[in-house]
Write a structure and sequence with these properties.
about 240 residues; Alpha-Beta Plaits; cytoplasm; DNA binding; alpha+beta; about 45% helix; 4-stranded antiparallel beta sheet; DNA-binding; transcription regulation
């Protein structure tokens, strides 16, 4: 993870979110539905649901939408059959790409994802072909603006909370945790008064892969096509890009 910052990608995604809010709400509703259906409708006893609700609120999703998705998951006879699927493949220059999808139509989703790869210099791979290049980690971002805490003090807070790693830039503190400790670390940091700008369990590439300058636009187009698909919830890659517009 050394030297790899998620913050530029997150800022770019939030800018895009303003233009795609309806689609983002639709995806979040599906995630809330699945979390409530699988592990119960009470966020206090369902960490996965609590985390998705926090993500929904950060995206300014109305409370009515959140409540409706939870009620739908617990109403007999009204359930939808969503399936969680991970696709693995390669972009231009062989960069590794993971696609997490939540779908009610496996054939439709597989076709759309395959087209996005094939038309933009990529190809789908077998299960396990690239997932070993990523680690599942808890990720927390705390913005430094108006925060009178230096790196040493933050590191002490992170270690005492149970975090594994701290990365620091002028803008933000980025904290990585074991996924099983993620919820506890979040709560410990919030109890100290820190405001979490971002908090999620994610896939972090172990190393970054260079991509040729003449392939970068093609790769970005592939990412855009994947992320625009209604069934796709998250896309991860290990390309070494200067920014994530």
């Amino acid at each position: 993870m050394s030297g790899h910052s998620k913050w530029s990608k997150i800022k770019g995604a939030k800018g895009a979110a303003d233009q795609k809010r309806g689609k983002i709400f639709q995806r979040l509703s599906k995630e809330i539905y699945m979390a409530a259906k699988n592990s119960g409708p009470d966020p206090s006893s369902n960490p996965s649901l609590r985390m998705i609700i926090d993500k929904a609120k950060a995206a300014n999703m109305p409370n009515d939408n959140i409540t409706r998705a939870i009620k739908k998951a617990t109403s007999a006879g009204e359930g939808e059959n969503y399936e969680e699927i991970t696709y693995e493949g390669y972009g231009p220059n062989g960069v590794a790409v993971l696609v997490h999808a939540l779908t009610d139509n496996r054939n439709r989703t597989a076709t759309n994802i395959r087209v996005a790869f094939n038309k933009n210099g990529g190809s789908l791979g077998e299960s396990g072909s690239v997932s070993y290049m990523f680690d599942r980690k808890g990720y927390i971002a705390i913005e430094r603006e108006d925060l009178e805490v230096d790196e040493d003090a933050m590191l002490m807070s992170v270690l005492e909370a149970g975090g594994e790693e701290l990365q620091t830039s002028d803008e933000v503190f980025e904290i990585y945790t074991d996924p099983t400790d993620f919820d506890a670390v979040c709560e410990a940091l919030k109890a100290e008064g820190y405001v979490l700008a971002e908090a999620e369990v994610t896939m972090v590439p172990q190393t970054l892969s260079a991509i040729a300058a003449d392939k970068e636009t093609q790769f970005r187009t592939m990412l855009e096509k994947l992320e625009d698909d209604d069934d796709v919830s998250e896309v991860f890659h290990n390309a070494d890009l200067d920014d994530e517009e």
